[in-house]
Amino acid sequence: MGRHFFVEPPNCYVTFTYGGREYNTETHENATSPQWPDSKHELAYDGQPISIDFAIMQRSAKENVKIASVTVKWDRFLPGLRKVADYLVTPLVPGVKNTAAIRVAATLQPQSMPKRPAGPRRKALFVGICYEGTDWYLPKCHEDAEKMKNLFCGHWGFIDSPENTKCLIDWRDAPDSTRPTLANIKAGMRWLVEGAMPGDSLLFFYCGHGSQQRNVDRREKDGFDEVLVPVDGKTEGMLVDDEINEMLVQPLPAGVRLTCFLDSCHSGGGLDLPYQWNPYMEEGASWHLDEGGVYADADVICVSAAAEDQTAKGIPRLGNRENFPSGAFSASWCVACEVHETQCKMNWKEMLGIVKEVCDDFNWSQNVQLSSSQKFDLTREFNFHDCIPNSNDKKGPVVNDGMPGFPRRNRLMDPTFSGFKVP
């Protein structure tokens, strides 16, 4: 169980009693809301409703003063699902605003989930393609892949080493082994998932062209497969969403976490995951079932730059931030990560809300999309290394089980980009 504060006075901490034992968070010297150090406690849980009284204390040289209180009540937990909620506190002394709040997050950890004794692995694959020297030229993707690698390895627990991270980028002098050809991207995906075991967390980032081609197995309701475009796509062909799912998603066992970012056109649904959501849905809307999706065992989350019928935008440098990428989606995601790190811990719904707001503020007409192999609570705290258990009854193609179908238009369009027609 962790918690996060939104109270103004400095030198505050929280204490509560549970099961006859007192728990305290750390005191962060002189700190005010909202940035506080992580603090977690493991509590026993017997399956019954929980009610805990939290006291917000202010530490001083003479005495500790109770400045606010709040009671947290939860009726039930689901194993592996992170429960996150904000609660307004009751001020007890002057100076505490009546809007002050405490965020409480808890996860019920299943006892039976096996883990590798040597500890979890963290692996990442980054792909950036500019198509230099072709009529597909897409500027800045080289730099964007490098900048996102620096973000994820520098701030989010991934490791920038040859054993843990691979980059496929079509630099002018790149050796053949690291060019993002169709064969190398497929080999990189196989490397990423090879030997994955429960507890591992994996990351895939792609920045380059995305497009569509006509679906031949009639499984896609809109008549099109989403594709990624390798640097040699004109001669070797595209990387189709069905293949990506087969290589990246289906081999992973339950207990493995994979997070994917697709900064490309037509990338919504690019992994053929069964559950879809985006922040442009009606308030309160939850997951929709993608009838062209495929159920899987692992905990796979994909964030895509645009809907299936939209293009992804490139932008001038956002606010003169040299460390920010030039892709509108990637730059917006960096903004959300910065807010999460420096202002307040956010959940997945809030993170995508920030990306939406940035895109809307700059009139970038692209709608960020979230897809998942598991139907999780959208208030699940944002990170790359937690994992929820498999809740799907089967693997394989989706058969509509009564959930709302994900709306797709049957648009027999002629998909193009940079003058190139996808066959």
UniProtKB/TrEMBL annotation:
Peptidase C14 caspase domain residues: 121-372
Classification via Pfam families: Peptidase_C14
Molecular function as annotated in GO: cysteine-type endopeptidase activity
Cellular component per GO, a single term: cytoplasm
SUPFAM superfamilies: C2 domain (Calcium/lipid-binding domain, CaLB)
Any Gene Ontology biological process: proteolysis
Similarity comment text for this entry: Belongs to the peptidase C14B family.
Record protein name field: Metacaspase-1
Organism: Cladocopium goreaui
